[in-house]
Amino acid sequence: EKSTEKLARTQRESAWRDMAKQVAHEIKNPLTPMKLNIQLLQRVMTMKPEKAQKMVDRVSNTLIEQIDSLAHIASEFSNFAKMPRAQNEVLHLNHLVWNVYNLFKEEENIELSADVAEDDCYIFADKTQITRVLNNLLKNAVQAIPEDQVGKIEIKMYMTSRTAIVQIKDNGCGIPEDKKDEIFVPNFTTKSSGTGIGLSMSKTIVEMAKGIIYFESEEGEGTEFFVEIPRYYPNQEELEYVQEAIK
């Protein structure tokens, strides 16, 4: 009985530690780019006040969306043993990708480019969770760049008749051949700091949306992650609702 009780206590403590790591990881991801956006806005207000108002609107919208995402993560902390149930809705993927691009584009020593399809593309998924996946992949790309190198990160979003594809490519250190099979294993990380939770959770989120996530990488050259999610074709009522929401 004592052994059983000790084992149960150990398992509970381990579960809490894993969840705490996950929450900390997901909260930390957007904080640095959020700070950079605010600092940029402060400089613009001081040096070019005539341009500040336009930037206030863009930065405010981006920060509000990210804060909503953080609030959702915090509120789900009690569900430490499982991923929060997805609250699926019709999402305008082009809009989500541009929002994440705007959040990260002020990263220092990084040249970030985006090539997003002009045609509207919709998916049926949890907005907060898909935003977390994109945040995590971009943060990983930034962290993969060696300190003595200018980072070049490319975001592409395109589609076929059935799927929407988001590609995030970096020119970082790449993934060693003997580590590739472990990339999506929970608690595995190639970084000196990090929990190894992010990619495992991203894989779970994408699969919950009936999609797939995979990568191509060459050590010393860089890595390219692909997220493929089934396209969704909204009816007129859904279409009007989404278009109004992103205005």
Kindly describe this structure.
With 247 residues, this protein is of the alpha+beta class. 49% of the residues lie in helices and 20% in strands. The chain has helices at 2-28, 31-47, 49-75, 93-104, 127-143, 198-208, 236-245; strands at residues 88-92, 110-116, 122-126, 151-159, 163-170, 212-218, 222-230. The strands form 2 sheets. Strands 2-4-5-7-6 form a 5-stranded mixed β-sheet. The longest helix has 27 residues, at 2-28. The termini are far apart.
Can you lay out the helices and strands and say which pair or pack?
Elements: H1 2-28, H2 31-47, H3 49-75, E1 88-92, H4 93-104, E2 110-116, E3 122-126, H5 127-143, E4 151-159, E5 163-170, H6 198-208, E6 212-218, E7 222-230, H7 236-245
Quick tags:
247 residues, alpha+beta, five-stranded mixed sheet, globular
What's the gist of this structure?
The protein has 247 residues and is an alpha+beta fold. The protein has helices at 2-28, 31-47, 49-75, 93-104, 127-143, 198-208, 236-245, and strands at residues 88-92, 110-116, 122-126, 151-159, 163-170, 212-218, 222-230. The strands form 2 sheets. The protein has a 5-stranded mixed beta sheet. The protein has a two-stranded antiparallel sheet with strand order 1-3.
Strand line-up across the major sheet: 2-4-5-7-6
Report low-confidence residues grouped into runs of 5 or more: none
Mean pLDDT: 85
Number of H/I helices: 7
- What gross morphology would you assign? globular
Order of helices and strands: HHHEHEEHEEHEEH
